[in-house]
Each structure stands twice: as structure tokens, then as C-alpha cells.
Amino acid sequence: MIDIKNYNYLPTIDEISAYIKNPLFDDFYTEIVKCYKVQPKIEFSKCSWEYGWNIKFKKSGKNLCTVYPRENYFTVLIVLGVKEKLAVEAIFSTLSPIIQEIYHQTKEGNGQRWLMINLEDKDKLYRDVLELINIRSTCK
């Protein structure tokens, strides 16, 4: 088992998947790579807020989302900026109550909301995260 906080050891995607121990991560990873034709990058964050290895999914230099591995689940960070705000608010009532709550509880700074969403099941929350990533990818 890898130590997700060990800066001296760069884990592979397979090792991160084994650390998470949830097949949902593999589904998520495959879907994002296939849909957006991106090459994820494993990076180490020294930030005290989220210290450790994470996976960034970028398209054309724009960060679609960042995944933070956890045991049995993973957290997806989606940054919604000014460009995404109108698109998200247009579908807001269709989003799961959990996403709505996270959105409302996340303070806006510099026109952005940094949504941290925990995923462990392939449910409405999962589908909503994919929808937010899609909005992020299409807003230019």
C-alpha cells in the first residue's frame, strides 16, 4: 500500500486506485480520459489544506478537476468561475441536494467557488459531478 503523503514516491494510477479501494474511481478515471481525451497528471501538493498526491485532469491548459485519493472514496475538486456560474445556475434546481448544499456553503472568492465533492457511489451525485466537469470543459 502506498503512502499518499510520501513526496519521495510517485505512485502510479493503479497504485492510487488500489489505495482508494473503490471501483468507482476506475470508472471515473476512464470516463474523464475517454470523454475529454486528456492525459491526467499525478502531482504532489505541499499545501497544508490538501497535502499529498492528487490527479489533475487538464484540457487545453484548463483544469477540469482535481482528484484527491481517500481510502474507500475520493474527493473531486471542481473550480467554478465566472464563466461557469451562469451555466451552473441554469441547471441548479436539477442538481442533487448535496451539490446544492456544497455550492451554497462554499464562499465565492475572486469570482470562483472551489467545490470539494466526495464520491463513493455511482449515483446522482456522481452524475452531477460529471455534468459540472462538462460545464467546466465547455465554458471558454
In percent, how much strand structure appears in the residues? 25-35%
Low-confidence stretches: none
Can you list the strand order of the major beta sheet? 1-2-3-4-5
Total beta-strand segments:
5
Described by the principal axes of the CA atoms, the overall outline is: globular
The end-to-end distance, rounded to whole angstroms, is 40 Å
Helix content: 40-55%
Question: How much is the radius of gyration in Å?
Answer: 15 Å
Brief descriptors of the model:
140 residues; alpha+beta; 40% helix; globular; 5 strands; five-stranded antiparallel β-sheet
Give a nutshell description of this structure:
With about 140 residues, the protein is an alpha+beta fold. Helices cover about 40% and strands about 25% of the residues. A 5-stranded antiparallel β-sheet has the order 1-2-3-4-5.
Q: What can you see in these coordinates?
A:
It is built from 5 helices and 5 strands. With 140 residues, it is an alpha+beta fold. It has a 5-stranded antiparallel beta sheet with strand order 1-2-3-4-5. A hairpin with a 6-residue loop joins β1 and β2. It is globular. The model has no long low-confidence stretch (mean pLDDT 94).
